[in-house]
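New to this. Comment on this protein:
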Amino acid sequence: MSWYLANEKKIIDQFTSGQGLSDLRKAIEANSFLALQDFIDEGVTTNITLCIEQLNQLVKKTRDESVRVTAEGLAKLMRGQKVAVITQGFGYEDDEEEDETGESLDPPEPAKPIKPVARKAKRNTVPNKDRAWFERKVAALKTELEKLPADRQEQLRRELKDNGERE
């Protein structure tokens, strides 16, 4: 089983196997990296900067070479993202007509539930059929954000704004 990192538009790349994710989870829990624990547990995060910092700390702390390589690779894939999603890929073929930019020329289809398939997905696959799940995760994250103290919320907004201006 392979695990991929995706953003709101596409799968970015594979970052680990099933065993690799399990080993990474154990190392994260052992070091009490709360942002990473939430990311692994929920499968989605907008807290990119803190997760990258914690992955870099894990790289320095761990003695397990496979955990180190997985953490380094995941941190690298997360750089520059606004949203990070952990997925097993998407179980459909993209048979819609596309223009040169990879954007569909047809209006998007309504979201339909699909069964996850443990196989390597085509690169640049647009997860439009998984949109409902993604929207639920974003809503849950917004709810969690509202529970944070006002000063922390403001700090996160500044970080998101700074990340958006860099792109």
Notes: The first helix runs from residue 18 to 30.
